[in-house]
Amino acid sequence: MFRVARWFRSHREPAPEDGAGRATTAARQDDPVVVLAALRSVAVGVGTTLDEAATCAELTRAAAGQTGGTAAVMRVDGPVVSGYESIAGHPEGLPDARWATAVARDMAAPAADAWGGQSVGHAAPDRTRPALCVPLATGEHRYGVLVCAREGAPFTHTETEVLALLAERAASHLRHAREHARVSRTAGDLQRALRAEPGRPHPNLDVAVRYLPAGRQDLVGGDWCETVRLHFGRTLLVVGDVMGHGVEAAVDMAAYRSDLRALAAADLPPHRVLRQLDALADELPHRRPATCLIASVDPVREQVTVSGAGHLPPAVIDREGGTSLLSVPVGPPLGTGFGGYELATHDLAVDQTLLLFTDGLVERRGEDIDRSLDRLAALRFATTAGVEDILDSVLGRLDARRAEDDVAVLAARPRHPGPHAHPHPPPHF
């Protein structure tokens, strides 16, 4: 910007006037204030997002518009130099890519331009088709080069300065874009680590799980599903929802999940697991409250025993494909320290499917929750649908991919117990 300002000052001359004493249109166009305003309007269009490719495309469009030629970017990432990218104009007008690549690799070393000063552009040796490389750099950080070319007259000193200004602005945004991408990758790695897959259920149970984070920024939030294989052919199914979104909720979700796995190893009934989870969370003041539903599926007895902590009830899909909701005693959310969880036992035959879900599957802004649950209960399914098909159908028909909250849903269907199944599993206490 200082180079451009110096050029403006060096070219100030009295503006010619017409007969009425007014400056002509051409003179107004040469006025530094007018030119700076025009240049500013072009520059603000470069770097409107944190997307590196989008910034490069905005830069080349602005550069091609300013020079009346073709512009492209070669990005540098460590030792890697890309080919021509984000081309604006006619690609055949660009110089040999080998020359631009050599400039991009060597741009850390200062070079002299045609005017003998410090380089803001590197002119191509082929003067019949003028071309220019302008570094995309901020301080010690190098991101690539802007390559411009056109037929006809070589680039003027002023054009080179303007391109350098646009390149400097773009480089600053490229720095932010790469830093944002680095942080996003780190957050993504953390979220994927937190989003552990559910354990393996007993072989006599078909299980399918889906998780859909709300929005595009987070890969995981506070919603989770878990399956724990128990003795005597039983499987513990769990779905939970930690208050909040993003990494913070996911951290607490991982803590609840870890505690659940440890408690399930003691083969406690669902309501006692909830009591223990509530007590553990209540001792940690910084852990967020959570809702939770636990179902112990027993294919041998053709039963499911459920207990809930402030969570929505599960649904059952019968052999004709109809859907109904199971009644579950309502208990307080985990982390409140109130306890008071109870059990409910229901029949669950081998041709029925149990559906556990978080509220993001059914809740809609401004809608009563009973109406939301009625919409789920009104669904019907093909009698031949498997658990995977059922989940795909539920998510599609309830438009879950556009939900405003995270969605976790689990479908489980008992198989016929094998010949070695224990005929008398222990009762719950």
Describe what this molecule looks like in 3D:
This protein is elongated. It has 429 residues and is an alpha+beta fold. Helix 4 packs antiparallel against helix 6 and helix 7 (246-264) crosses helix 8 (270-282). It starts with a helix and ends in a 15-residue tail after the last strand. It has helices at residues 2-10, 25-30, 32-43, 52-67, 97-106, 157-194, 246-264, 270-282, 369-377, 387-397; strands at residues 70-77, 80-81, 85-88, 122-123, 131-138, 141-149, 205-212, 223-229, 235-242, 290-298, 303-309, 315-317, 323-325, 344-347, 353-357, 407-414. A hairpin with a 7-residue loop joins strand 4 (122-123) and strand 5. The relative contact order is 0.10.
Describe the SSE topology.
Blueprint: H1 2-10, H2 25-30, H3 32-43, H4 52-67, E1 70-77, E2 80-81, E3 85-88, H5 97-106, E4 122-123, E5 131-138, E6 141-149, H6 157-194, E7 205-212, E8 223-229, E9 235-242, H7 246-264, H8 270-282, E10 290-298, E11 303-309, E12 315-317, E13 323-325, E14 344-347, E15 353-357, H9 369-377, H10 387-397, E16 407-414
Antiparallel strand pairs: 1-2, 1-3, 1-6, 4-5, 5-6, 7-16, 8-9, 9-10, 10-11, 11-14, 12-13, 12-15, 15-16
Helix pairs in contact: 4-6, 6-7, 7-8
